[in-house]
């Protein structure tokens, strides 16, 4: 087993001509707060590992794990941020990298969770194992809130501890012998979980792609919607809209074509709608708005970015009864089996929070928080536009996708971090189609977003 | 609707599962039974679901954390995927003291069942696996799903590539390792679900040595460690050398009543390496970062409170409550002449019904006594002839069920006890806890009387031997032949119901 495969290829270590000696940055606003996260050791470092001289077991390392090129993207970004903070202990580092929510959760929601927690100390209120698929009232509320009138029933909804976890559970039911297509760029969990499951070939350094994966290029030129006529058939198509990282939201017409494409090819669309409520345009918020989608798609979503539940952990996946394998067996039955075997339900306390989110008061409160982050997005978009950049997204998602033509995105990431103490996310972390782009996340306290934009203006004026 | 089928073939591994996961199957049968018998008072001793409230000190911590998330100061977003460091260290301190286990080696999760699957994803399809037989079904089921298991052999009920390590009364519920083939991975649960058996230090040393000699990795499930009553080890890491051969998984579910709250952990020692020297912990960390996003922050606050000095005491009291339940169950079954194992170091009693199909026994018990148990066969072929009875329940349910609407039978000389299940059918709702208690009182009384050498009043001898002809279900005739004894009052009531 070659240990050199552990060495990172996607993290740029070369310094570009732009990197100058670090400038001491005097923060204009002394009240700028830093997200006070503990500097935890991140172990996702893809550094060459010395051979241990002690006892080793005779169990072979899973070859699929060895295919992974580096740590998962976001812990890598965190590692760099932490290293930077150690290097510049006085700098006020602003995190617009990992899409981590920052605003407090509305009280109507947290008080529901607190009450549920307290109830667990009473005989009447105590509950043990819940249904693995989620508590009925929550499933029902999700169905009616997000899928009302779309023919989705309560028991098509599977409540989880988040979309990222659901993606891996879906991979488990699909197994190793399926082919997958992803947007390029895309949220890294689709490809990484696919590698882990053994669906992909080796990483090809020259093109920065895994073998056997169909990368559907999404660029400004094609309006961030793939040219389906050039896409080979795969069993599974991962599609995220509004998109992380590009911020682009597919139109009804585009999604209709996608559904038709999947139908013609007998493929399954895994549709990630985690950012649907950030949509300003009149684009579909669920794939099930497209007729016929129930036979070709399942949808995953999350409370993370709606309710600030990134740490609380709650999401869901919709698997329509009409979605069938080639032998007519319903996908939902197998997904249910996984949910019962590899999972044990989302926390009852968190589900109580989810239910409160979907009350009229909760929905109103959530839309206010979403509105806040959308305003952040506008500020960031305006900043980059005013600096003459081509900045995409922002309108329908809490991400701004900024183009730095001809540059290595890790280099740009490093430069921005070094010179402005602002953490972003390098586009190549989302796939080769992200090279030359930087993703700026709009989650942050208003003053931090404003400060970061001031610093961008300073750097790029 | 066009009835479109995709062209995606169903994952053959999922097909190999053959049936639903065991515990939802039990739920389904429960529901069906309730529908057919809407007036029956069902007693659930099937799924090991905790019933006692969580102590205040813990739920208060969770409530406070929830409220704090509504404040600017207290709000946190994504946490470390590996878990809150304070909690990781508290787990290391509480459960692994003296073993050299560090906070860094602890990965907090939403429960052992979830961790088992993440470990399987980590290990991949090209490893061989051994399980105890019987065992917690998730090990085998996830092995099938991930593609390690090979096909199911109908005749034996075993998957072709899985090594089943028989654990029965005959070998004291510890496998004969001298005849166990080498596998890459050995799943080992102690205290055991379902048998309730806890391996001794010596046995675990054997296991560790076996793993070391074979270059295997033990996945040690210690979810029930809190129920140990004797000197049995509570962690595999109490055994020297275990760090190089074992991963340990555990859970707050049975420790703190967190079955619905969802919190557990996995320990991956830094010393544990693959054959090429690569540390397992690095890959597990990658899985945790990619396939998971950390346990809920609110729940972790609860976990931390569990591990405070007062918290440990409080959850310990709840565990003691269940342990007392287990004791009652064990005594009850013993008094009925049934061989009941476990119950001492685990909240499960493993009752033997020689020569009988466990699903049949499960059904009979459910139909006739409205008590839900779990058929041993659900835990593997080695579980056939056994029933698992869970000790989680309100005391009154346990007491009622342990005599289980069964007639507690005593002989005057208190030497022979026979069970009569059909009487339960004949006397629905009759609570024979009374019989049990009265028998006990009678025991004590007899003792006192003997000591006092007083004359026994005939009237006080409520209990007499009676023979109930035809009171047995045919299936129980094998176990408990003719002699049945009824408490006098019970007999009278039974007779009045019969007439």
From TrEMBL, chain A:
UniProt xrefs under Pfam families: Aminotran_1_2 (PF00155)
Cofactor(s) the record lists: pyridoxal 5'-phosphate
Record's keyword terms, sorted: Aminotransferase, Pyridoxal phosphate, Transferase
Gene3D superfamilies: Aspartate Aminotransferase, domain 1, Type I PLP-dependent aspartate aminotransferase-like (Major domain)
UniProt keyword Transferase, yes or no: yes
GO biological process: systemic acquired resistance, salicylic acid mediated signaling pathway
Domain Aminotransferase class I/classII large: 92-456
Name of this chain's protein: Aminotransferase class I/classII large domain-containing protein
Organism: Dovyalis caffra
TrEMBL record, chain B:
Domain Aminotransferase class I/classII large, first and last residues per copy: 42-397
This protein's UniProt keywords: Aminotransferase, Coiled coil, Pyridoxal phosphate, Transferase
Cited Gene3D superfamilies: Aspartate Aminotransferase, domain 1, Type I PLP-dependent aspartate aminotransferase-like (Major domain)
Recorded coiled-coil stretches: 432-466
GO MF assignments: pyridoxal phosphate binding; transaminase activity
Keyword Transmembrane helix tagged: no
InterPro entries: Aminotransferase_I/II_large, DapL/ALD1, PyrdxlP-dep_Trfase, PyrdxlP-dep_Trfase_major, PyrdxlP-dep_Trfase_small
Cofactor(s) named in the record: pyridoxal 5'-phosphate
GO BP, sorted A to Z: systemic acquired resistance, salicylic acid mediated signaling pathway
PANTHER family: AMINOTRANSFERASE (PTHR43144)
Family recorded in the similarity comment: Belongs to the class-I pyridoxal-phosphate-dependent aminotransferase family. LL-diaminopimelate aminotransferase subfamily.
Listed name of the protein: Aminotransferase class I/classII large domain-containing protein
Species name: Dovyalis caffra
């Amino acid at each position: 087993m070659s240990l050199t495969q552990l060495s990172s290829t996607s993290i740029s270590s070369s310094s570009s001509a732009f990197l100058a000696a670090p400038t001491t940055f005097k923060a204009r606003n002394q009240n700028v707060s830093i997200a006070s996260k503990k500097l935890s050791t991140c172990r996702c470092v893809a550094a060459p590992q010395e051979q241990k001289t002690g006892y080793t077991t005779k169990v072979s390392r899973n070859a699929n794990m060895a295919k992974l090129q580096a740590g998962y993207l976001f812990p890598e970004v965190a590692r760099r941020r932490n290293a930077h903070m150690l290097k510049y202990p006085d700098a006020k580092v602003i995190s617009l990298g990992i899409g981590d929510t920052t605003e407090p959760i509305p009280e109507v929601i947290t008080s529901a969770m607190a009450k549920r927690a307290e109830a667990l100390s009473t005989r009447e209120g105590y509950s043990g194992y819940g249904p693995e698929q989620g508590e009925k009232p929550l499933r029902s509320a999700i169905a009616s809130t997000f899928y009302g009138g779309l023919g989705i029933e309560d028991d098509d909804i599977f409540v989880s501890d988040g979309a990222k976890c659901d993606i891996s559970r879906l991979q488990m039911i699909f197994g190793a012998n399926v082919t997958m297509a992803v947007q390029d760029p895309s949220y890294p969990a689709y490809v990484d979980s696919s590698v882990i499951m053994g669906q992909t070939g080796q990483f090809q350094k020259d093109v920065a792609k895994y073998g056997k994966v169909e990368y559907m290029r999404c660029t400004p030129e094609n309006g961030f919607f793939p040219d389906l006529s050039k896409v080979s058939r795969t069993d599974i198509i991962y599609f995220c809209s509004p998109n992380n990282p590009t911020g682009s939201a597919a139109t009804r017409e585009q999604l209709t074509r996608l559904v038709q494409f999947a139908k013609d090819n007998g493929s399954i669309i895994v549709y990630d709608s985690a950012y649907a409520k950030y949509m300003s345009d009149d684009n579909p918020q669920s794939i099930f708005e497209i007729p016929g989608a129930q036979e070709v798609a399942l949808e995953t979503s999350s409370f993370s970015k709606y309710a600030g539940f990134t740490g609380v952990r709650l999401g869901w996946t919709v698997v329509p009864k009409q979605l069938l394998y080639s032998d007519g067996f319903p996908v939902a039955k197998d997904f249910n089996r996984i949910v019962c075997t590899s999972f044990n339900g989302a926390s009852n306390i968190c589900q109580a929070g989810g239910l409160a989110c979907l009350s009229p008061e909760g929905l109103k409160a959530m839309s206010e928080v979403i509105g806040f982050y959308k305003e952040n997005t506008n500020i960031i978009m305006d900043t980059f536009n005013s600096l003459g950049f081509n900045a995409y997204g922002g309108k329908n998602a809490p991400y701004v996708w900024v183009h730095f033509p001809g540059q290595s995105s890790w280099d740009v990431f490093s430069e921005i971090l070094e010179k402005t103490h602002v953490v972003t996310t390098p586009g190549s972390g989302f796939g080769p189609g992200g090279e030359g782009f930087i993703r700026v996340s709009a989650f942050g306290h208003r003053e931090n977003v404003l400060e970061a934009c001031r610093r961008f203006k300073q750097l790029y004026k | 609707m066009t009835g479109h089928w995709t062209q995606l073939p169903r994952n053959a591994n999922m097909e190999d599962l053959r049936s639903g996961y065991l515990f939802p199957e039990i739920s389904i049968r429960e529901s069906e039974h309730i529908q057919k018998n809407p007036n029956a008072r069902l007693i659930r001793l099937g799924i090991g679901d905790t019933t006692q409230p969580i102590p205040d000190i813990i739920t208060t911590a969770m409530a406070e954390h929830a409220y704090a998330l509504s404040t600017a100061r207290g709000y946190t977003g994504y946490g470390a995927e590996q878990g809150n460091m304070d909690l990781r260290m508290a787990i290391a301190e509480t459960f692994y003291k003296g073993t050299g286990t560090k906070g860094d080696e602890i990965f907090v999760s939403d429960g052992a069942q979830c961790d088992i699957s993440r470990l399987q994803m980590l290990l991949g399809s090209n490893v061989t696996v051994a399980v105890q037989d019987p065992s917690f079904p998730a090990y085998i089921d996830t092995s099938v799903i991930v593609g390690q298991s090979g096909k199911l052999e109908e005749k034996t009920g075993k998957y072709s590539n899985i090594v089943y390590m028989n654990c029965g009364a005959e070998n004291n519920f510890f496998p004969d390792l001298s005849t166990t083939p080498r596998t890459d991975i050995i799943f080992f649960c102690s205290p055991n679900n379902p048998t309730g058996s806890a391996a001794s230090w010596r046995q675990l040393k054997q296991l560790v040595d076996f793993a070391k000699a074979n270059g295997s990795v033990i996945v040690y499930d210690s979810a029930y460690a809190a129920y140990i009553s004797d000197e049995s080890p509570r962690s595999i890491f109490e055994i020297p050398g275990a760090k190089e051969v074992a991963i340990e998984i555990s859970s707050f579910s049975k420790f703190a009543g967190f079955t619905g709250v969802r919190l557990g952990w996995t320990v991956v020692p830094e010393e544990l390496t693959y054959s090429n020297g690569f540390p397992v912990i690095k890959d597990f960390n990658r899985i945790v970062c990619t396939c998971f996003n950390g346990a809920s922050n609110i729940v972790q606050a609860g976990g931390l409170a569990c591990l405070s000095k007062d918290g440990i005491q409080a959850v310990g009291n709840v565990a003691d409550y269940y342990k007392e339940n287990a004791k009652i169950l064990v005594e009850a079954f013993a008094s009925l002449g049934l061989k009941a194992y476990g119950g001492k170091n685990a909240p499960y009693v493993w009752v033997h019904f020689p020569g009988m199909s466990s699903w049949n026994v499960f059904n009979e018990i459910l139909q006739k006594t409205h008590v839900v148990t779990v058929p041993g066969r659900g835990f593997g072929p080695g579980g056939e002839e056994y029933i698992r009875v869970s000790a989680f329940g309100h005391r009154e349910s346990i007491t009622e069920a342990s005599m289980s609407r069964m007639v507690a039978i005593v002989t005057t000389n208190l030497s022979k006890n026979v069970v009569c299940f059909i009487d339960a059918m004949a006397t629905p709702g009759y609570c024979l806890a009374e019989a049990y208690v009265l028998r006990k009182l009678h025991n004590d009384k007899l003792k006192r009387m003997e000591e006092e050498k007083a004359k026994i009043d005939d009237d006080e001898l409520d209990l007499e031997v009676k023979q109930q002809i035809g009171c047995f279900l045919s299936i129980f005739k094998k176990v408990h032949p003719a002699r049945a004894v009824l408490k006098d009052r019970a007999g009278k009531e039974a007779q009045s119901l019969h007439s």
